[in-house]
Amino acid sequence: MKAWISLPLIALLLAGCAAKTAYRDSCATELDAAWKELDMAKAEGFSGAVSYSKALSLLTAAKTEQQFEGFEGCTSKAEKARFYIRESRAGR
Length: 92
Description:
Layout: H1 2-20, H2 24-44, H3 49-67, H4 71-89
Helix pairs in contact: 2-3, 2-4, 3-4
């Protein structure tokens, strides 16, 4: 009887662990790309200081989420940061 109860519990725990890493690769890829784009924007000189600041804040938050394995939120924030980097480079 105990095996019937513990088997679904183990399966549920393993599924939860697998779901936690679903965005791991996209988080790392987006963060790397965003940091490189931010460096280029800084090197080129930029006129969109507000957008640059927003991007930097989002990247910092994304890196924090990555450290705590919040990969979905990390990916989302890195994508938003890349948008603001493009806006910064366009002078907006």
